[in-house]
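User: Quick sanity check before I run a bigger batch. Here is a single chain. Can you write out its predicted 3D structure?
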Amino acid sequence: MLYSLARPLLFALDPEAAHHLALTSLKLLERGGVASMLAGSVPARPVKLMGLEFPNALGLAAGLDKNGEYIDALATLGLGFIEIGTITPRPQPGNPKPRLFRLPEAQALINRMGFNNHGVDRLVANVLRARYRGILGINIGKNFDTPIERAADDYELCLAKVYPHASYVTVNVSSPNTKDLRQLQGADELGALAGKLKTEQKRLADVHGRYVPLVLKIAPDLDDAQIDAIAKCLLKHRLDGVIATNTTISRTAVAGLRHAQEGGGLSGAPLRDVSTEVIRKLARLLEGRVPIIGVGGVMGAADARAKLAAGASLIQIYTGFIYRGPQLIGEILRALPAAKS
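Assistant: Done. Predicted structure follows.
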């Protein structure tokens, strides 16, 4: 109710300004002890996956809290897990503004943020200050000016720095907003990157005495041959999970709408069926051997159930949270069946 009253004000502001105002307000509500009321009561439905126990199947996707500045505030909303980032080795400002656009008629967003973040060291400092002890995913990427042939160096550096502080680490090779990044989804490139990161994961597990799962985040704009190659890579290199999917570069579903031709990744309701179909195809290929986290166009409980029915074990929200607010969390969790483990 509170968010539905605040949304017209937020949507009257520049999208980035509204984003920061909303999160700052949530932090103030958390400090006042009332933020936990926003989502309403949520049932405890734990899910065991990747050697972790998630309090429930619904999480927050990366991108909302890039630097881990709002972890404790977000943790009050009843989510089963939180993913922060995408983070890069060095701080970077991202792409020029404006770079975030609303398409309210389609319940969608277009962003070309470009991995704007304060760098991995700042994120780690923020994580260490947070009181949250739940499931925390940390999403890693490469700096915009790192040549694609040196991308693995950036991922390895980030992995080493976040490893002691993460419940799982997501390797983002699917953002459309960093030049050439999606090349890393090619069979040869992905195989080489996955091999290096799995070797580093093993080394870090020995050093720290704990195994932190490694998850791959992929794009929705893949043909069947590419999905098949990714599934084979996941199995060959024994990656611990896959997130399907990131934003899309397609504009078919929003053609003619204001801002539809802006560059960047499209998220929200138009992505729903595309991402669900990628999940369905992956589930057939993986046969339960690699768990799938479903994200893309989850605007209500029915969308979340569709992702689970297609083969996902966990769900993430982002754009739906922007449009619906914390009440979306309670709505989804109260409607989901007992999650599979």
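Residues 164 and 208 are 7 Å apart (CA to CA).

User: Great, the batch can go ahead then.
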